[in-house]
Specification:
The complex is a heterodimer.
Chain A: H1 2-14, H2 27-69, E1 72-73, E2 83-84, H3 88-94, H4 99-131, H5 138-145, H6 147-150, H7 153-163, H8 170-177, H9 189-217, H10 221-229, H11 234-245, H12 247-262, H13 266-271, H14 288-298, H15 302-333
Antiparallel strand pairs in A: 1-2
Chain B: H1 2-38, E1 43-50, H2 60-67, E2 71-78, H3 81-94, E3 100-104, H4 105-111, H5 114-117, H6 136-141, E4 152-164, H7 165-170, H8 177-183, H9 188-200, E5 207-209, H10 212-221, E6 228-229, E7 232-233, H11 239-253, H12 265-273, E8 276-282, H13 285-293, E9 301-304, E10 311-318, H14 326-336, H15 339-349, E11 352-353, H16 378-387, H17 398-414, H18 419-433
Parallel strand pairs in B: 1-2, 1-3, 5-8
Antiparallel strand pairs in B: 3-10, 4-8, 4-9, 4-10, 4-11, 6-7
Helix pairs in contact in B: 4-17, 10-11, 10-17, 12-13, 17-18
Classes of the chains: A mainly alpha, B alpha/beta.
Chain lengths: ~325, ~425
């Protein structure tokens, strides 16, 4: 490109009649114009380059390296002695020795995702709607929403582990008020997944509520006034004005929460204490992220862990594809 | 939103400031590390440990730094051994190891195997090290096939039983250490039987033992054949694994165990709530009993002889070959594991020395724990048990096997699985990760 355009540009400088803006005939100003062109064309690339360089080093390289590892048998402490096994790791995962745990983890990732994402977004929507009214101490309330998001996963999970503890935890005390027996939250499949969803919901609801709130404030007031004139009450306004206007935002939060749910790791890992590395004694809340960690760092089978990582990557690509299709349909319908 | 934007901008700049501060800290942290090695002739030795090694508590680092003015010691402790080992494995390939690394007995077989042995230096030629001082089986465990000893024993884990004399009394059982020891002398099955007797008259809301997985591990640990035989994984045919499993099943079905996950927070809380009457007490467990039961329960615990002598836990100190100050690190390890120092650690935190020369020092055999049964012969019980331990063959994945079986027992206790289901799940777990 550069070699072909450069002479032609020189040529244009000698024959001003061929170019529409012929106002730069002399040598130095031709150089300046070239510089200017590079500036306008090249600067954006130069400015985004650091991101892509960093991405190549810390995103792309690990991604490809993990892919390479997933075809090998590698132990954590002897990465240089990798042994080629072809698709063995993937076979292990889908039909072999680990398949029991893999499908279990996939199902858990899905159920935990639904259990935490759906209430989280519904509550966030409701909270945002309430905060959109003229409330007293509105600024404080809005800031307070972000507090859970700013709390570290470890701190939040440890507190919730105490709440759901079988030894005098608060959750069992509440159950006791209703006459229900004490529950061993961590041991049961559904009770443990419920407890973990509570942690996730607690941490992310405020964040989503703020995003919804920002979008709600962009909805023109006239729409509400018109609806009110037509006799719509608050609930109907919410249903027929707010929700449709928020559709792209809702889609965005759904996608982001889904990606977050697919990668769920910290909460179940820390919630499980000694058996957190395998998602509970019975793998009852083992997610794909935990399975990857367990295989790679607990059992030191890096190749198999890499295969889990690439499977997760494929899953996320699939989610991204669904997202793109949905967005396109949404745009077409508008 | 305008009200929001102001604090956000402020917090943005605050984040920037703190990021810069963190960067500055990191930079100075790096430079001080590098500088101390060469510039002023001072050497910083780092020691990676897990749990409680007791060196800081016994003032040993300070003493060593006073004797060797050119050396600064920094300990990098991790609470849970599992996390420590995971990090250590990563660093073995990725770099960033400490000058001295502690190794738990369940990992020593892997560390001495062909895969890892070259990562550590031979310590048998370290200044002042005398092979005869160490318990022979402890020395052999850390010795590779080609005769290099890559770890020096710090402590061993002879088992005893810690029990609550107040709860025993309330359940109509004898409560002095000698009579209690006689209740179950010679056989772990008797221990489970005593559990049934206890449970029949137990104070409300208490169980005989904290966890059946503790019982399982204790039974296996006191057997000469455990998970490995002739260099091969042989847990399925191991008599001790079978016996231990059956006893654990009995304990669970007789509801004599509280079903706690050992070392987890609920387990720690249960100590202070006095909800169980016994726990298996390897020497290092004394520190936990005291810490978690709290001052309010002082004088309620006592200690008795176990049904059978066995070893549970204990550690080594190793020096990674990749370290910058290998010779200095070797000197430090030799000093830390010498009899005098091990005796001090024992008196401070209760870890029984792996160096048997330490048993002859004053204040070891005669030691009495001020918190646990002030009248019990703690030092005598543990040193006797340590000498009568029959070493069992161990293997590269012994630590993972212990973990898998503890989980297996918990499946019955916490997840309501039948013994068959739990056994099958355990076998599946082992088959899927250990090849």
């Amino acid at each position: 490109m550069a070699s072909t355009t450069a002479p032609s540009r020189n040529g244009s400088a000698e024959r001003p009649d061929t170019q529409p803006p012929p106002a730069r005939p002399t040598g130095p100003s031709a150089w300046r114009s070239r510089l200017h062109r590079w500036d306008t064309k090249g600067t954006p690339y130069a400015l985004v380059a650091p991101f892509f360089l960093v991405f190549a080093a810390f995103g792309l390289f690990p991604l490809l390296y993990t892919g390479w590892l997933s075809f090998h048998r590698v132990s954590l402490y002897n990465v240089d002695r990798a042994e080629w096994v072809g698709l063995r790791n993937y076979e292990d995962l889908f039909t072999g020795q680990v398949s029991h745990y893999f499908w279990n983890a996939l199902l858990n990732t899905f159920t935990l995702g639904v259990l935490s994402t759906v209430p989280q977004l519904l509550i966030a929507l409701g909270l945002a709607h309430l905060l959109n009214y003229r409330l007293r101490a509105r600024g404080f309330l809005r800031t307070a929403l972000l507090a859970p998001y700013a709390t570290s996963v470890a701190a939040a999970t440890l507190v919730f582990a105490l709440i759901f503890s079988p030894e005098g935890g608060m959750a069992n005390w509440v159950l006791g008020l209703f006459g229900a027996g004490p529950l061993h939250w961590e041991a049961g499949r559904w009770s443990s997944q419920f407890a973990i969803s509570v942690i996730v919901t607690w941490r992310w609801t405020g964040y989503n509520a703020l995003i919804f709130l920002a979008a709600m404030q962009a909805v023109p007031r006239e729409l509400y006034e018109a609806a009110a004139l037509d006799g719509a009450n608050r609930w109907q306004q919410f249903l027929h004005v707010t929700i449709p206007a928020l559709r792209p935002t809702i889609l965005f939060t759904v996608i982001v929460s889904t990606i977050g749910a697919t990668q769920l790791f910290g909460e179940p890992y820390l919630f499980g204490g000694q058996s957190g590395h395998q998602g509970g004694t019975d793998h009852q809340y083992e997610t794909l992220g935990i399975l990857m960690y367990d295989q790679g760092f607990h059992s030191s089978m890096l190749g198999r862990a890499s295969a889990v990582a690439w499977t997760m990557f494929g899953l996320l690509l699939l989610i991204g594809l669904v997202n793109a299709l949905l967005t396109r349909r949404l745009r077409a319908s508008q | 939103m305008s009200r929001l934007s102001l604090p956000r901008a402020r917090s943005g700049s605050a984040a920037l400031v703190s990021a810069v501060a963190a960067l500055a800290l990191a930079l100075t942290g790096c430079s001080s590390d590098e500088g101390s090695a060469s510039a002023d002739g001072k050497i910083t030795l780092t020691v990676g440990t897990f749990g409680t090694f007791g060196y800081k508590e016994a003032g040993l680092y300070d003493a060593y730094m006073k004797q060797n003015p050119g050396i600064t010691i920094k300990e990098n402790p991790t609470t849970v051994e599992g996390n420590y080992w995971t990090a250590l494995q990563t660093r073995l390939s990725g770099g960033g190891l400490d000058d001295v690394q502690a190794l738990e007995v369940a990992r020593i077989s892997l560390a001495t195997s062909e895969d890892l042995a070259d990562a550590f230096v031979d310590l048998s030629d370290a200044p002042g090290v005398d092979k005869k001082d160490y318990l022979p089986w402890k020395w052999d465990q850390a010795t590779t096939a080609d005769g290099r000893t890559i770890g020096l024993g710090t402590d061993v884990g002879p088992m005893a039983i810690c029990y609550r004399q107040d709860l025993f009394k309330a359940a109509g059982l004898p409560s002095d250490p000698e009579s209690v020891g006689k209740l179950w002398a010679g056989d772990w099955a008797k221990f489970v039987e005593v559990g049934k007797q206890y449970q029949a008259k137990a104070p409300k809301g208490t169980a005989f033992m904290d966890s059946a997985s503790g019982l399982f591990n204790a039974v296996v640990s006191s057997s000469p054949v455990q998970y490995y035989k002739d260099g091969k994984l042989a847990y399925k045919d191991s008599a001790s694994v079978r016996t231990a499993w059956d006893l654990a099943v009995k304990a669970v079905q007789g509801k004599t165990s509280q079903g706690l996950k050992m070392f987890d927070t609920p387990w720690q809380t249960a100590f202070s709530k006095s909800t169980f009457a016994t726990t298996v007490c390897p020497s290092w467990q004394q520190a936990n009993v005291q810490q978690f039961s709290g001052p309010g329960n002082k004088g309620k615990w006592n200690i008795a002889q176990p049904p059978a002598a066995g070893n549970w836990g204990g550690s080594f100190l190793a020096v990674p070959a990749s370290g910058k100050h290998v010779d200095e690190a070797k000197k430090l390890v030799a000093w830390l594991t010498a009899p005098e120092q091990q005796a001090k650690v024992f008196q401070k935190v209760g870890n029984i020395p792996a160096n048997q020369a330490a048993y002859d020092l004053p204040g070891v055999v005669g030691y009495k724990n001020a918190y646990i049964g002030p009248d019990a012969a703690t030092g005598l019980i543990f040193s006797t048990a340590a000498k009568s331990i029959k070493p069992a063959e161990t293997g590269p994945r012994a630590g993972d096997l212990t973990g898998a079986f503890s989980t297996g027992v918990l499946l019955m206790e916490q997840n309501g699985k039948t013994p068959e289901e739990a056994w099958n799940a355990t076998v599946r777990q082992i088959d899927s990760t250990i090849q």
